[in-house]
Structures are given as C-alpha cells and as structure tokens.
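name: query_chain
kind: protein
chains: 1
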Amino acid sequence: MPCLAALLFQPRGMETQPVLSPEIQRRIERVCAGLTTPVVEKDDPHACQTLQDRMAADRVPGVSIAVIHNGEIEWAQGFGVAQLGGAPVTAEPSATPHPN
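structure:
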C-alpha cells in the first residue's frame, strides 16, 4: 500500500509526469475518495471521507500530496488553492510551509 505524505519539498530532478497510466489514475482517485479517520469504528458512516470533504471540514483551501510507492515518488499533485481567491495548488513545493 502506498504511503501518503504532504509534499513540502521536491528532490532535484523530479519532474511531474504529464501522462499517468490508468493504474496510477485509479490510485489517485482512491486517495481522493477514500480518506479514513485515525480510528475507524465498525459501521461508522463517517469513517471514510473524500479529500474535498476533509479539506472543507478542516478549512484547508489547498494541499499538495505525494504518494511514495516502493521507495519512490509515484505521483504528486496539488488540490485546491494556495489561499482563498488565489492560485491553484501545484505539486511544486512551497518556499515555506503554510500553517493553519
């Protein structure tokens, strides 16, 4: 199972893949559709949230996500905006992390 990590920096030489395989696209969709809470109780209808719902609940306008698979960055993508009314988030690292 891939490891999910916030992308705070980008190693030199890493470039965003312009075309992703269907398998990688399915993995991205699973990340966006299937975030779970730290503790999952049996039959809890709220145990799984979409990335969009989690961002709204936590009042986070945007995030960059990188998925590490077999020790390498498999994919990285930005979701949402850097700040309300601002530019879209990209997979490129921010010069400084933005606290809530």
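note: The longest strand covers residues 72-80.
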